[in-house]
Amino acid sequence: MDTVLYFEGEARGALRLLRAVKNRFGSTHELGMFRMDDAGLQEVPDPSEVFLAERPQGVAGSVVVAGLEGTRPLLVEVQALVAPSALGVPRRVTTGVDYNRVCLLLAVLAKRVGLRVDSYDAFLKVTGGVQLDEPAADLGVAVALASSFRDVPALPSAVVVGEVGLGGEVRAVTGIAERVREAGRLGFSQVVLPSSNLREVPPGAVELVGVASVGEAVEAILRR
Q: Which of 31, 43, 68, 110 is least crowded, fewest Cβ atoms below 10 Å from its Cβ?
């Protein structure tokens, strides 16, 4: 067997993702995007622009995350809704992000940042049917949850990337230069990223905001 391909997407949506998981003669975890129209299945050359086309402005809980699918940088919107729970055990519902990872990030926000989200219901979704399974999405998910909890919109011109540790620290990620370049291409003026990644990105039009902890990221990207 030379290649294993998965054709993914929401059943009622128009977008389909073609993912290469195994490839004997090439790279794995590459991603292609297609849309069904009157002429049949057509390639989507700019997936990031499609994912962000209907992004709401000025809404708490909405954050743009810089992901990396294979060698392709991909900007997607993460939406979070944190609301008071009427149950003894708060609900946690996730789409596009690992359930256990979200529970871990909620615990970090409660313990390290002082946001008492442990008694609240938390709902989280990645728009467009994308699955964010890399640690680099941690910081964006955490900021989206904090944004909804505080009911304060995140800066609309900012993109977030970084791995979060149990101590609340923000750790370096791979492919940071490609992620920043994609953010600048789509018109974003600011990228919140791990401080340890700053030296890997050459100066450009995008403002780089290095953070060492989740608390710093929350204060940097949420409007006062």
A: 43
